[in-house]
Amino acid sequence: MIGLLALWHSYGGLVTGVGGVAGGWYGRIARTHALERRDRLDAGAQALRLTEMLTARERVLSDRLDTLQQHHWMLMDQVQDVYAEAIAVRLIVHDLDAIAGRPLRQFRPLPPYPFPAQDDQAASGETSISSGGEDNK
């Protein structure tokens, strides 16, 4: 026991110094690993928040697109009704002109229905404004 105490007094400072260095080195490695792990967890949490935000935005945009599509089809139904009424009125006017013995009236042609796709108009170089202006000349 006395030999152990003498050994400790002789080499105790060296043992505690080496132990301190080893403990400090291990603590630094453990801290570095903990920071890396926290960074990965933070990045994962950030990715999850971003995914949730994008999902919510996509849901809102999808609902808005559905609403606009329904509105578009409702307007197309109304345009179809107007076309049918315009054709019916033209036939009635032609019948009245024929009964009265007058020459048949000439009407401006109706635009094509269903409307051409936007890509078709862009490819042909026509727009609804330019085609409407040409008929008024």
Automatic annotation (TrEMBL):
Ranges for the region named Disordered are 110-137
Q: Which residues are listed as membrane-spanning?
A: 6-27
Taxonomically, which superkingdom?
Answer: Bacteria
Keywords (A to Z) from UniProt: Membrane, Transmembrane, Transmembrane helix
What this protein is called in its record is Uncharacterized protein
Its organism's taxonomic lineage begins at: Bacteria, Pseudomonadati, Pseudomonadota, Alphaproteobacteria, Acetobacterales
| Protein's organism | Acetobacter tropicalis
Question: What are the Polar residues biased-composition ranges?
Answer: 124-137
